Amino acid sequence: MATGRCACSGGRETSCCSNGRETLASLSHLERHGDDSATGIAAEVLQRLHAARDSPPPAALTPLHDILAALFLKAEGDRRAGRRTQFIEAAECAQALLSSQRDVRPLHGDVHHANILSAPRGWLAIDPKGLIGEPAFDAANLFCNPLEKDLRFREDRALSMAAILSPALGCAAERLLDYAFAFSALSAAWHLEDGDPGEAERSLAVGRAVRAARARLMS
Fold first, then answer.
1. Are the CB atoms for 140 and 6 separated by under 8 Å?
2. 105-123 pLDDT, tens per residue?
3. Which of 70, 71, 94, 170 has its CA 20 to 30 A from that of 186?
4. Which of 64, 86, 67, 65 has the alpha carbon at shortest distance from 75?
């Protein structure tokens, strides 16, 4: 069973190339083609990943509730301490999403810019974690990346990403933004476990931008 956390959001590492091949995290790619182009490529990759399969899913895939455990643990600690925090809000959002999952299927589990690379047969996602759940979860990590660019903190960028990704995922933009909000707090919880409060705060800042984007979308 795959239980590893998602690499870039978990504070592991990021790379602009993999085995000499360009990834969507490459600053040169972003400068040449722009962020919306990178998001469009990610949307196409996600569509291929989530295409219907004839065979049943493997039994050993990790459910989303398990991968979100660090967020739920942090939120419970804050709740017991009498603090109303972003972690609690995100955990409540995550619970609502989990209780209403749609189109549950195998997921890659770690889709982000540094894990999408150019290959002779097109753009491919590498390093799958083996989850099962709603496809929108697979796009959530994209909002937290690329780590080298401050655009991840921008509300307008979150709106643009949601507009591009949600049709490819077959879900409403606001639901996708909810997944991104929950995931950003999960990322922050992982960073705190790793002793990196600075990156934890940056992940929470992504979540605030995503939440503001959702509010604007619904106004």
1. no
2. 999 999 999 999 998 889 9
3. 170
4. 86
